Amino acid sequence: MNGADVLLYVEVGASLTILGSQTGMSIDETTDEIDVSSKDSRAGRYIPGRYGSTLTCDALFEDDDSVYGALSAAMRNGTLITARVYYDGVAQEEADCIVTKVTRDAPDQAPATLSVDLRVDGEWVSLVS
Amino acid sequence: MLADGALQALLASYNSTLAIFASRAAAGDAELPYLVISGPIATRSADTKTSRGVQTWYDVRCYAALSDTPGEVDAIAGAVRGALHRTKLLSVDGYRIEVVEVTGPVAADEERAQGRALTVRIIMREQEGS
């Protein structure tokens, strides 16, 4: 799959809107490991612990982008926001997220960029059967 | 650049307009001093996943007569830089200009003229709906 076909949409008002000029995205899913090893065995034993997921999306910064506005508002107001991931134009999964970081980078004589970090509240909900 | 006062004071005229040639070379009967804008000499994609952009480079060459002082051709190069570097006045239909940066001038003397060359880098992004 071409990474260009993986896109982030974010809740803006009553609809989900694509974040403009996206340049990259990464989705992490992690499970904490709980060590239940004992003297009974030399081998370590583990059980799955807390599940978590984060999403980072990079884009060019456009101050009039409605998605940037929604993300910034959710960040400052401390509200959840729905994020949806598309593969090649097809909605794949969505989740309610906390906006944990919004970075606007403005280097001299180069396009300004935006980086947004989201943490999933709960888990991803699949939208494909 | 045609409307730039500094360049109007420094360049000759050709066909009743400022002697600026957007071609590989100036017209054969053009009088010095003049400018030749050539390019794009290089083009690179500045696309994102969801928008289309382009980064291009143009050369602007400034020429003055051998009988002129070097200061005159340097003044023309300085005026070109002043008109273009970091300008927000450039416009291209269907695009939004993000960056305009001029490097140079560097010496570009020729057999029959003093020359200075500058390179203009432009990053522009297609506007939605264009």
Characterise the protein shown here.
The complex is a heterodimer of chains A (129) and B (130). Chain A is 9% helix and 57% strand. Chain A has 129 residues and is mainly beta. Chain A has one domain (3-126): Roll (Pnp Oxidase, Chain A). In chain A, strands 1, 2, 3, 4, 5, 6, 7 and 8 form an eight-stranded antiparallel sheet that branches. In chain A, strand 6 (90-105) and strand 7 (113-120) form a beta hairpin. The model of chain A has no long low-confidence stretch (mean pLDDT 96). Chain B is of the alpha+beta class. Chain B has a single domain (5-126), classed as STM4215-like (2-Layer Sandwich), CATH 3.30.2000.30. Chain B is built from two helices and seven strands; from the N terminus they run αβββββαββ. Chain B has helices at 5-10, 70-84, and strands spanning 13-14, 17-18, 20-21, 34-45, 53-64, 95-107, 114-126. In chain B, the strands form two sheets. A five-stranded mixed sheet of chain B has the order 3-4-5-7-6. Chain B has a two-stranded antiparallel sheet with strand order 1-2. Chain A binds chain B through residues 3-4, 6-7, 18-23, 59-60, 109-111, and chain B through 46, 48-51, 86, 98-99, 101, 123, 125.
